[in-house]
């Protein structure tokens, strides 16, 4: 079962051309939805406005830009360095790499039914990785669940991405398993799989999907601003700045040590 291309067997019921056209449409929807998202939310405008800030302390050479780009790719993209919480980072990496493996393997197998069984293995491995990271996040790591004690089944508009993603991959694996067993319910599950996948890729403007394309650019811009000194134009929020000390109405906080309050990091807040 794990070595069989499930889309090749599906070709007996659905034309390969239809499956391939569906994949192309989903790619177009992601591209169009991402462009709409960054324009509608002003992300692109903010990014280019910030990039052109004139208050530079120094010029960053081409070599340093390449080094910053490599560091951004390795630390911020490949290793999800923005997450300080180890569990959150592991869950995110499982979901991210599982999604990449699953989607790439899907595209390969849909466009080449004779693809090596390795791609079927990667399809299953990627799907299981994604489900492990995704369900771990949904049931145990979400802030409102872990810290605030909210119900694990509480659904908000912002949950569209993660829920449609989990539904799509869960239904994909169930469909492949049922199809391999020759179950008559396979086509029903496949129809649900298509619906969930369509919601996932067509709902880009209303989900967090677009952030996976914009966040690397934002992380790169942040590192460049630190290198050329632009970031120094921003106001500081540390208590070692005299101006920030005067913001506190309590005399105690004005003279408090800089490491005050780190005790809260000893244990993650749960259900406060």
Strand and helix layout:
Blueprint: H1 6-10, H2 16-40, H3 43-51, H4 62-78, H5 86-111, H6 117-141, H7 143-146, H8 160-180, H9 186-202, H10 211-228, H11 242-245, H12 251-254
Helix pairs in contact: 3-10, 4-10, 5-6, 6-8, 8-9
Describe this structure in words.
This protein is mainly α. The protein has one domain (6-233): Fumarate Reductase Cytochrome B subunit. It has helices at 6-10, 16-40, 43-51, 62-78, 86-111, 117-141, 143-146, 160-180, 186-202, 211-228, 242-245, 251-254. Helix 4 packs across helix 10 (211-228) and helix 6 (117-141) packs across helix 8 (160-180). The chain is globular. The mean pLDDT is 80.
């Amino acid at each position: 079962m794990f070595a069989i291309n499930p889309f090749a067997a599906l070709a007996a019921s659905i034309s390969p051309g239809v499956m391939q056209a569906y994949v192309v449409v989903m790619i177009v929807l992601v591209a169009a939805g991402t462009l709409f998202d960054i324009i509608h939310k002003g992300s692109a405008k903010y990014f280019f406005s910030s990039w052109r800030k004139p208050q530079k302390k120094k010029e960053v050479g081409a070599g340093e830009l390449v080094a910053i780009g490599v560091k951004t790719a390795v630390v911020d993209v490949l290793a999800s360095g923005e997450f300080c919480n180890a569990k959150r980072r592991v869950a995110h990496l499982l979901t991210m790499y599982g999604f990449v493996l699953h989607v790439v393997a899907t595209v390969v197998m849909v466009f080449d039914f004779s693809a090596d069984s390795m791609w079927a293995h990667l399809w299953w491995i990627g799907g299981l990785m994604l489900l492990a990271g995704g369900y771990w996040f949904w049931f145990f790591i979400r802030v409102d669940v872990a810290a605030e004690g909210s119900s694990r089944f509480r659904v908000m508009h912002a949950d569209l991405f993660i829920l449609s993603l989990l539904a799509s991959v869960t239904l994909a694996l169930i469909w492949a398993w049922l199809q391999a067993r020759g179950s008559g319910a396979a086509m029903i599950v496949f129809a649900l799989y298509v619906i969930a996948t369509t919601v996932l890729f067509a709902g880009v403007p209303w989900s967090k999907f677009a952030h996976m394309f914009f966040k690397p650019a934002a992380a790169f811009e942040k590192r460049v601003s630190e290198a050329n000194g632009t970031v120094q134009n921003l106001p500081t929020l540390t208590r070692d700045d005299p101006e920030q000390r005067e913001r506190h109405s309590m005399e105690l906080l004005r003279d408090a040590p800089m490491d005050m309050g780190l005790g809260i990091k000893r244990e993650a807040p749960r259900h406060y």
